[in-house]
């Protein structure tokens, strides 16, 4: 992080405690109000040292700040110069040498400072200098004594004393200054150092009195010939985490301190290490001397924190371990040592000692390639098949939070657990997962890995892709509007309000062209991330929807920039420009599937391309700082370098192109200019007319009407302007400006070509299609979201659903009429949404920790509440509607009580235990339990009434009200994903409990049988888009499935239909 800081920092430090660490409210009732966010205060960290990698314990309050509240782009140099320029208020005194430690870190060696008024004149300057030396998340803001008193003035520093530097509250109970032990020297003590004084060089700066007693206790018990040894420790709660420790028999530390120093070598749920057990016999190590005597042959030990020791799993001989037995506060030591233990006893405990097998018997460390969920890093970690490898469970007994924010213990529930046959283990993206089979599960009931007895049929596509596309709207002879969204070409009849779909593409469509006969259509798709997802062009009949030709499967790179049919030879040729580095222009005889000619165009972006309407041998391409004219001669394409020469500076982009009836080429550019290029007697296209500053910026589209009127559409100014081409392109005194909600104009199409009614369709950058004219008002025909869309919720008892997007819009739709019922704007981008059980309230979570409650019938605001500063990734009401659970990006689940019909929300509890941001939450049907998944693919269970984590084996028979969590026994059949590196984003179980819809990061929509408990279960699948399928939801009656996703905010509705000839037995619901 940078150490930049403005000069104003000299006055900011004076009131940090009062401004950013206020006292918590006396009760937990928080009124419905937006909490004002604090201004940004930059952290001050040295450029050569990164921020401390893990957060320390802090006192949690309602106004506790997160790291995202601060930035690091201020100028520290300026601040220091201002501080140093101050004049001291008194004469310098003798320097005081003090030591500073880092808050919450007992292993920090400390930084020594000589404090004098000449070098450090005030407390603010000291804090800045300390921030350079001691990395803390928000810089050093406070200095405390070891007793916890906060210092406010330099005069309080005493010579020879030690202090603690912190960003917020000091973490107490930490033995500050406990340096890591230097266990041995490679040489004997020097002549100037006596052996009896060696302990002085290993002294504890906090407690110097007990060193002699520690040394006598440790050293006198060991043989003088004892040598250092290396042991391996394995975490009791994370059996994949291990570390090697080098032990010095002559150490002066006591056993408890040694165990505490070992803690940093492994990952633990309840640090620090409080006990060691031998790996093979599970005998407790009572003292340091035993490691060199009784257990000198043991090289592997299990390290336990405050939790009880977990034994190994049962062996094939049927021995039951106590992995799932009742909790013991302290496990009694086993009297039999390893020397006298028989091979049978070793096998019974489920392990083989190191003397019989090497270190390869230890579990491998976990993969570090975890995918941070949302938004949008892909994982390359390998997913392995399901197995029954008898390895102990992953982390279960973490700490949780009570309603006051204080940590409470999380003991195992004393419930008998099933045998190993009822446990399934698998690895998902590097994390070892353990799932418990329900006790009532019947393996013979139905094949859990077979395809479901139902399938999906696309019924409706909401919205339009206009934010990054051009010329992707046309009117068919039938009066249908044709456009594309994601992988689908939509043909919408505005009179009958029906849709037809061409579904031949497997990746997002980028461009299209209408054949001169008006019967055929060419569409080009981008290349996908899978090996067989090639960029290509499909030519098809829009009446029968039959594919006539597939072109360029092995030719195009990345995608297709633009397409165009030739005009004079009745569309025999098709031109295309690919998205490769050289942007190759190719001309195809599409019916014969062969290239007629091709050439490289320009290394920079190409956005436009077309045949000249009067001569098929002339082609034009344009894009970033270029417009090229080409001539096709004898199977070659040659550039006409004399045509298209700009007078003066070239525009940054050519953004629009059209042709006049006389054959003139008309272009619009990013500077708002419209240029007309005419051909002279030498067949050279020269600049003939120039309309400078016709629009404020880019001219995205141009359309020449049959009466000679040229229409231009602007992006930034949102203006539709008419120009008279028959009178030298003078303004026609007809102009309309669209509202900001409509966005800029991307495409202009005549409703009735050749007629003088002036009716138009306009496609806009906000993904709208509107109709009207220069003389009449424009009305909306097609509308949708204009930015990323992740939030989707279905009404509990009506054919309606709600969407909320990054465009700050919340929309309620009717699935029966496909109409928008209402649309409102909120303050921030939206990420999650849910309905109350009675359907009267809709709650939306935003990217800044604000949730908004709306009246579900008209969209009016009911309440809003600021939960924190991180985005709310998941929101879910309890089945009875009394509680609202929210999973945040700050790794916390917030529980709110819902009062006064949703008008009041009261914070009820915080559930902490996840180590990454929350992604999915489900309630049990009785409202007693929660299950949650985070970005590291960790599945946790919670006992809601006790505000603590629950043993996953206890919840094996819990009936879940919904199934949106992507992990669990009933959904293990969807893992591993379709290919390694593909992530599952969203799942949804049908209300009837027999279907499971799944959406992944490659745009695949899949339909499984539920429960899906067989590895690599079969499914029906469809390619919806090229990027993330972000959400899937069944309507309350299971008649339809709603899906969202893609870069163009695609929203699709699928009919759920029966499949002929497939067994229709329903699976059980769990």
From TrEMBL:
What family does this chain come from, according to its entry?
A: Belongs to the WD repeat EMAP family.
| Region annotated Disordered, chain positions | 309-413
Which locations, inside or outside the cell, does it occupy? Cytoplasm, Cytoskeleton
**Gene3D superfamilies, per this entry?**
Doublecortin domain (3.10.20.230), YVTN repeat-like/Quinoprotein amine dehydrogenase (2.130.10.10)
- Main localization is cytoplasm
What protein does this entry describe?
Echinoderm microtubule-associated protein-like 2 isoform X3
Compositional bias (Basic and acidic residues) spans?
319-333
Whereabouts are the WD repeats?
A: 692-724, 782-823, 911-952
The entry's keywords: Cytoplasm, Cytoskeleton, Repeat, WD repeat
Ranges of Polar residues compositional bias? Answer: 339-355
Domain Doublecortin: from-to ranges: 96-177, 229-315
BP term (GO), one:
microtubule cytoskeleton organization
* Organism field: Branchiostoma belcheri (Amphioxus)
Q: Name one GO molecular function term.
A: microtubule binding
Q: Which Pfam families match?
A: Beta-prop_EML, Beta-prop_EML_2, DCX, HELP
Taken from the UniProt entry, a GO cellular component term is: mitotic spindle
């Amino acid at each position: 992080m940078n150490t930049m800081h403005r000069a104003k920092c000299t006055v900011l430090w004076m009131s940090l405690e009062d401004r950013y660490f206020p006292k918590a409210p006396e009760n937990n009732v928080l009124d419905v109000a937006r909490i004002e966010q604090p201004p940004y205060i930059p952290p001050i960290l040295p450029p050569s040292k990164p921020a401390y990698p893990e957060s320390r314990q802090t006192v949690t309050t309602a106004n506790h700040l997160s790291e995202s509240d601060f930035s690091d782009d201020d100028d520290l140099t300026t601040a220091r110069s201002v501080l140093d320029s101050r004049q001291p208020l008194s004469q310098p005194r003798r320097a005081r040498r003090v030591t500073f430690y880092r808050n919450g870190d007992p292993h920090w060696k400390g930084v020594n400072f000589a404090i004098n008024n000449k070098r450090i004149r005030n407390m603010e300057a000291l804090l800045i200098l300390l921030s350079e030396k001691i990395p803390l998340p928000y810089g050093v803001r406070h200095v405390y004594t070891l007793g916890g008193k906060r210092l406010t003035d330099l005069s309080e520093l005493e010579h020879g004393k030690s202090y603690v530097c912190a960003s917020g509250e000091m973490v107490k109970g930490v033995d500050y200054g406990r340096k890591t032990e230097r266990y041995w020297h490679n040489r004997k003590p020097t002549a100037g150092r006596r052996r009896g004084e060696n302990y002085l060089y290993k002294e504890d700066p906090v407690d110097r009195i007990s060193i002699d007693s520690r040394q006598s206790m440790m050293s006198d018990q060991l043989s003088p010939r004892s040598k250092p040894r290396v042991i391996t420790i394995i975490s009791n709660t994370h059996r994949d985490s291990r570390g090697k420790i080098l032990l010095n028999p002559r150490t002066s530390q006591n056993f408890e301190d040694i165990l505490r120093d070992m803690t940093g070598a492994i990952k633990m749920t309840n640090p620090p290490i409080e006990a060691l057990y031998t790996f093979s016999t599970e005998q407790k190590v009572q003292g340091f001397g035993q490691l060199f005597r009784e257990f000198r042959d043991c090289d592997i030990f299990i390290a336990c924190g405050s939790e009880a020791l977990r034994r190994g799993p049962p062996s094939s001989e049927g021995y039951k371990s106590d992995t799932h037995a009742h909790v013991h506060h302290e496990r009694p030591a086993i009297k039999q040592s390893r020397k006298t233990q028989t091979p049978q006893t070793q096998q019974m405990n489920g392990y083989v000692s190191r003397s019989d097998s090497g270190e390869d018997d230890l579990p491998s460390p976990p993969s570090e390639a975890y995918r941070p969920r949302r938004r949008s890093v892909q994982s390359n970690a390998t997913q392995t098949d399901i197995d029954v490898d008898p390895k102990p469970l992953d982390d279960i007994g973490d700490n949780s939070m009570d309603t006051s924010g204080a940590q409470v213990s999380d003991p195992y529930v004393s419930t008998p657990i099933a045998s190993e046959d009822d446990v399934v283990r698998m690895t998902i993206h590097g994390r070892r997962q353990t799932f418990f089979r329900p006790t009532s599960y019947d393996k013979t009931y139905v094949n859990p890995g077979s395809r479901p007895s139902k399938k999906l049929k696309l019924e409706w596509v909401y919205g339009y892709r206009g934010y990054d596309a051009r010329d992707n709207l046309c009117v068919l002879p039938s009066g249908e509007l044709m456009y594309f969204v994601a992988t689908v070409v939509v043909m919408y009849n505005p009179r009958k309000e029906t849709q037809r779909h061409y579904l031949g593409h497997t990746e997002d469509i980028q461009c299209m062209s209408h054949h001169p006969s008006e019967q055929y259509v060419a569409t080009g798709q981008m290349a996908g991330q899978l090996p067989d997802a090639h960029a290509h062009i499909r030519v098809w009949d829009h009446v029968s929807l039959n594919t006539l030709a597939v072109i360029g499967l092995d030719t195009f790179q990345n995608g297709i920039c633009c397409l165009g049919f030739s005009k004079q030879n009745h569309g025999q040729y098709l031109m295309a420009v690919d998205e490769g580095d050289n942007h190759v222009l190719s001309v195809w005889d599409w019916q014969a599937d062969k290239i007629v000619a091709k050439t490289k165009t320009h290394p920079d972006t190409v956005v436009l391309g077309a045949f000249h309407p009067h001569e098929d041998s002339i082609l034009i391409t344009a894009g970033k700082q270029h417009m090229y004219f080409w001539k096709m001669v004898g199977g070659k394409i040659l550039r006409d370098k004399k045509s298209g020469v700009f007078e003066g500076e070239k525009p940054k982009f050519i953004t629009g192109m059209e042709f006049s009836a006389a054959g003139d080429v008309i272009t619009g550019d990013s500077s708002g200019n419209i240029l007309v290029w005419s051909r002279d007697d030498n067949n050279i296209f020269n600049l003939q007319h120039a309309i400078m500053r016709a629009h404020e910026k880019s001219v995205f589209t141009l359309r020449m009407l049959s009466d000679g009127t040229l229409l231009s559409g602007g992006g930034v100014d949102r203006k539709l302007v008419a120009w008279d081409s028959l009178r030298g392109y003078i303004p026609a005194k007809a102009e309309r400006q669209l509202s900001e909600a409509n966005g800029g104009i991307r495409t202009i199409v005549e409703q009735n070509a050749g007629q003088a009614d002036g009716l138009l369709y306009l496609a806009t950058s906000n993904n709208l299609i509107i109709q009207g004219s220069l003389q009449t008002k424009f009305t909306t025909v097609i509308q949708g979201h204009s930015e990323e869309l992740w939030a989707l919720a279905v009404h509990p008892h009506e054919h309606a659903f709600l969407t909320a997007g990054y465009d700050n819009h919340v929309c309620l739709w009717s699935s029966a009429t496909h109409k928008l019922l209402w649309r409102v704007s909120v303050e921030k981008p939206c990420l999650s949404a849910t309905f109350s059980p009675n359907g009267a309230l809709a709650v939306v979570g935003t990217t800044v920790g604000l949730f908004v409650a709306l009246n579900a019938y008209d969209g009016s605001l009911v309440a809003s509440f600021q939960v924190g500063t991180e985005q709310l990734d998941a929101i879910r009401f309890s089945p009875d509607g009394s509680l609202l659970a929210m999973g945040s990006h700050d790794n916390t689940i917030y529980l709110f009580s819902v009062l006064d019909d949703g008008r009041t929300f009261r914070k009820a509890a915080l559930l902490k235990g996840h180590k990454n941001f929350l992604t999915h939450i489900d309630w049990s049907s009785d409202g007693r339990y929660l299950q949650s998944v985070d970005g590291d693919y960790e599945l946790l269970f919670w006992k809601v009434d006790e505000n603590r984590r629950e043993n996953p084996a206890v919840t094996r028979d819990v009936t879940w009200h919904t199934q949106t969590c992507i992990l669990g026994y009933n959904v293990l059949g969807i893992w591993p994903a379709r290919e390694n590196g593909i992530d599952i984003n969203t799942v949804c179980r049908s209300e009837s409990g027999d279907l499971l819809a799944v959406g992944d990061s490659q745009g695949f929509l899949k339909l499984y049988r539920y429960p899906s408990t067989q590895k690599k279960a079969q499914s029906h699948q469809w390619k919806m888009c090229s990027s993330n399928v972000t959400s899937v939801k069944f309507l309350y009656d299971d008649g339809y499935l709603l899906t969202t996703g893609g870069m163009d905010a695609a929203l699709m509705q699928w009919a759920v239909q029966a499949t002929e000839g497939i067994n229709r037995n329903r699976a059980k619901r769990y």
